[in-house]
Amino acid sequence: MSITSKRELFDRELQKLYHAEIEILDLHGDLADAAASDEVRTIFAGHEGDTVDQIDRIEEIFAVLDMEPREQGSPIMEGLIAEKDQFVVEVEDDDLRDLDVINIGMINERLEITLLDRLILLANELGFPESTTMNLEENRSEAQTALERMQEFLEYQHVS
Ligand SMILES: [Fe+2]
């Protein structure tokens, strides 16, 4: 399908984000399992509830815009999952594995933030209902908080 309008771009990006969040539910579970420390496990386990809420908010956006909730696959997401599968079998040392787990988590949150920034911009340009922008901003702020928690873990690791 060729895209000829900003509205079509928005729809495609929303479907990509929806797909990403659904994949992220599994990804977070795998990252929590692969984590060596309780601290890292807690970061991912804690963010799982947020991800469920984020999926609900995206479904609300689909409903408000009168769209069927549809997923669109994205090679970036598949790549991230492949990367996770690879390092889980490669890294044996616990501390190193925790750093890898956090790194994958950070790439993932940054990807969410990037997709959301674009969607927020498009939603504003297209004059969508305020609830749509608010739902997107709420998801962005949760991704930002998760990213900061992961960053704090890394900084702590480097000084200790
Ligand atoms: Fe997230």
Question: Can you tell me about this structure?
Answer:
The chain has one domain: Ferritin (Up-down Bundle). Helices cover 84% and strands 0% of the residues. It has five helices and no strands. The radius of gyration is 17 Å and the shape is elongated. The termini are far apart. The model has no long low-confidence stretch (mean pLDDT 93). Fe (ii) ion (FE2) binds next to helix 2, helix 4 and helix 5. Fe (ii) ion binds at residues 24, 47, 51, 109, 112, 143, 146.
Uncertain regions spanning at least 5 consecutive residues = none
Q: Which sheet architecture does the biggest sheet show? A: none
In CATH, what is the class? Mainly Alpha
Helicity range: over 70%
| Overall tally of structural domains | 1
CATH topology: Ferritin
**Beta-strand content:** under 5%
Radius of gyration computed on alpha carbons: 17 Å
Number of helices: 5
Please count the beta strands (DSSP E, at least 2 residues each).
0
Shape estimate: elongated
The molecules bound to the chains, other than polymers, are: fe (ii) ion
SSE topology string: HHHHH
Our measurement of the CA-to-CA distance between the termini, rounded to an integer number of angstroms, reads: 52 Å
Average of pLDDT: 93
**Which CATH architecture would you pick?**
Up-down Bundle
Summing up helix and strand content along with how strands pair, one would put the structural category as: mainly alpha
Report the CATH superfamily: Ferritin, core subunit, four-helix bundle
